[in-house]
């Protein structure tokens, strides 16, 4: 029996006022966010720099029990496993592209007490994950080129989501990039159940409404597919 998947909405705080990180994060949680998606960039794997484990650790000291996912857009994900575990991160999602031995990183993340997320850039074919999907708790399909918020959604990436959902019905599949009320239906239809939304949630005057809309749309498709 495949586990019953549920919709989870994890706003990305990259586009929030980072000087008010705690306040903005708490507000998102108060407005119904299921988890926080924290974009960590090293200026190398992606051309942008964001924040690292000291900030995540400070945020965790204020927000004790929310689920933190760090999206590690970094060239050497192995380097940050221990520091992020020390910051009490729940899910460590890293990119396959810069790594030779993905299963090794998966195991190290698990050993450090975190869940394993494996992320694919738009140019990476989805079938690369067959070798280690059993080691991952989540596969993240990027629907924009990683590195900057506010980019245009890349609809063809949803073919990857559909392929994953067909082949791994019980898998948590996350989409990230340009996802909001206008693109959520396509994501839900393809089979994504974990939704990262940055600008669409952060920039809204009614965050709770946007989060609810995203969740309801995904749940609608999940229930439909579950009952088939």
UniProtKB/TrEMBL annotation:
CDD domains: RPE. It catalyses: D-ribulose 5-phosphate = D-xylulose 5-phosphate. One of its GO terms (biological process) is pentose-phosphate shunt. SUPFAM superfamilies: Ribulose-phoshate binding barrel. PROSITE patterns: RIBUL_P_3_EPIMER_1, RIBUL_P_3_EPIMER_2. The keyword Manganese applies. Its cofactor is Co(2+); a divalent metal cation; Mn(2+); Zn(2+). It holds the Pfam family Ribul_P_3_epim. PANTHER family: RIBULOSE-5-PHOSPHATE-3-EPIMERASE. Belongs to the ribulose-phosphate 3-epimerase family. HAMAP family: RPE (MF_02227). This is Ribulose-phosphate 3-epimerase. It comes from Camponotus floridanus (Florida carpenter ant).
């Amino acid at each position: 029996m495949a586990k019953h998947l549920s919709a989870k909405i994890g706003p990305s705080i990259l586009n929030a006022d980072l000087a008010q990180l705690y306040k903005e994060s708490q507000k998102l949680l108060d407005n119904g966010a299921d988890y926080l998606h924290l974009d960590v960039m090293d200026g190398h794997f992606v051309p942008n720099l964001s924040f690292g484990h000291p900030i995540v650790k400070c945020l965790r000291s204020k927000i004790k029990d929310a689920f933190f996912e760090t999206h590690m857009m970094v060239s050497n994900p192995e380097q940050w496993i221990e520091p992020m575990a020390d910051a009490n991160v729940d899910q460590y999602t890293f990119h396959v592209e810069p790594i030779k031995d993905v299963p090794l990183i998966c195991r190290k993340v698990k050993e450090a007490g975190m869940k394993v997320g494996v992320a694919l850039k738009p140019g990476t074919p989805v079938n690369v994950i067959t070798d280690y999907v059993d080691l991952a708790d989540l596969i993240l399909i990027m629907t924009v080129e990683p590195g900057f918020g506010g980019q245009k959604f890349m609809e063809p990436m949803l073919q990857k989501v559909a392929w994953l959902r067909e082949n791994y019905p019980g898998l948590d599949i996350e989409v990230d990039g340009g996802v909001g009320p206008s693109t959520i239906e396509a994501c839900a239809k393809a089979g994504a159940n974990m939704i990262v939304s940055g600008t669409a949630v952060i920039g809204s005057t009614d965050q709770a409404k946007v989060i609810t809309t995203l969740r309801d749309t995904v749940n609608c498709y999940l229930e439909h597919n579950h009952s088939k």
